[in-house]
Structures are given as structure tokens and as C-alpha cells.
Amino acid sequence: MNYENAVDFYIVVAIAVCIIIALLIIRFGFIAPIAPRRRLGKAGAIRIGNGQTIGRRAEQDDYFASMTTPVGTLAVVADGISGLQNGRMSSTLAVTTFTREFAKVERADELEEYFARAAQKSNREILQNLNGQGGGTTLAAAVITGGKLHYGAVGDSLITLFRNGEFVPVNSKHTAETLLEEKVLTGEMSREEAVSSPVRRQLTNYLGYEGFERMEIGEDPVPLRADDLVLLASDGVHEALTEIELEQILLQQKTPQDMAEDIIDAIEAKGLRGQDNATVVILREDAC
């Protein structure tokens, strides 16, 4: 074998050895695999818990859902208006519309438009199905993406942040209570008159309302901190339990599912005579 042939032979052998070593590394995992790309918009996994009770009502008019897409995690709670017909239909249709429209969202910067679009579609479809009959629903929707909370709400279902042992309100109630509070501040009404007003709980905005214009949408997403809990609840929860009672449950730092079940158990244990339907969804973003 001449010199040139010998060089070519050793080059081929060296290449073959490198290939064999590379195959062994891949086969037996001597080096860590490349980490997969994080799903768009997610800063961590979202843990979700939910609970519901019919209370003392004849039927369950609350409806809820959650879903996760590459954009983020959505949770929706709707409370069909029990004093009107078709409450169940209204809440179910609204939640279904919000989840369907969320599946079309491709980027986090589309979320404000998504909330507005889903609300208008829900309102229109509910009115079409009501066909002149009474009905409607409140709705609270929250999306967690990239460590931030985006939200939209209409009616008196609440989105609340539980942070460092305290509740931080996210959305406002769309009820006559808000208008009455304004009258108290301006001196037009006493505090006692406002509290005892028979229209205090009357909704001023909801889905399925002929005069509906828009839902409340957070203009700026809320940055979330470690261990923050995001609660979505129908008014049956807040009417039954005080903030102190809710705090005692949430401070136990159980899983979101266990906490949601504990909240419902506490409501049912009270056995309140006029207990409304009650639904709670709890979300917590875990670090990656």
C-alpha cells in the first residue's frame, strides 16, 4: 500500500469511528437531548381545579370550561340568570362560543379582540335562540399566557387574584350596586339606603341583553407572581362564603382541585336556604 492509499484508508477509518461514536451517543443518551421549544406564550404549566354545586335551585344554570392551546390557558365561568327562562341555554351557549373562538387565536396580542368578538357573538346567538323570551347570562373569562393574566367579564361573576394571603379584585360587578355606591359617594343616598335597596343585585349588563354594548376587558394584562391563585366564581360562591372563609381554604396551599372541592364542600355544609348555583375555577401557574 503506497503512502497516498494509506492516508485515504486511515481517513475512511477515522470517519467510520466518528459515525459509530455518534450513533452510540444517540442510542444510549450519553448527552442530554436538546430541550423542546416551550409552547408559545407559556411561562409554566397551568394547574386547574374546579367545583360546582346546584345549591337549592331546581336546575344548574352555571356552566364552565377550560382549555389550553399554544397561545395559553383559558378558563370561563358563566352564570345563567336564574330569574329568567333559558338560563342554562344562555350560559352553555356563551361558554361554548368563548372556547370555540379561543381555538382560533394565534397570538397573545389578539386576546383583547378575541374577548370583544366572543362577547358580541355570544350575545347575538343567545338573543337569536331566545326568540323574544327571557334569558341571559353573566360571564368571566381569563387567559393565562406568558406569566400574565388577560381577562374579560360581564355581569357579576368575579375574577379574583389571591396573592400573599389577600384578595386582589380583577374585574368589577355590572350591577346596580355599583351605581348605588356612586350615589353614596356623591351624597345622593345614605349607606343604609344603598345596602337595603331592592335593586342592589340587579344586573346592568349581561349576555343576552338587547342593550348589550361590550364586556369589560382588561387593557393591560396582570403580571402574575409565584404562588398567585386566579379564581373565577359565580355569585353563588361569594354570597355563601366570606373572604375570611375563602382565605382559610386557600391558605392551606393544596392543589387547585382540592381547594376548589373544599370551597364547594364549605358552601354545601352551610345549607343556606336560598343557596344559588355556585361554581369556582382555580388556576395556578407552576414554574417550569
UniProtKB/TrEMBL annotation:
Gene3D superfamilies assigned: PPM-type phosphatase domain
Q: Which residues form the PPM-type phosphatase domain?
A: 47-285
Q: Does the keyword Transmembrane helix apply?
A: yes
Q: Which InterPro entries match?
A: PPM-type-like_dom_sf, PPM-type_phosphatase-like_dom
Pfam families noted in UniProt = PP2C_2 (PF13672)
Keyword check for Membrane: yes
Which residue ranges run through the membrane? 6-30
What keywords were assigned to this record? Membrane, Transmembrane, Transmembrane helix
Name listed for the protein in its UniProt record: Serine/threonine protein phosphatase
Give the organism's phylogenetic lineage. Bacteria, Bacillati, Bacillota, Bacilli, Bacillales
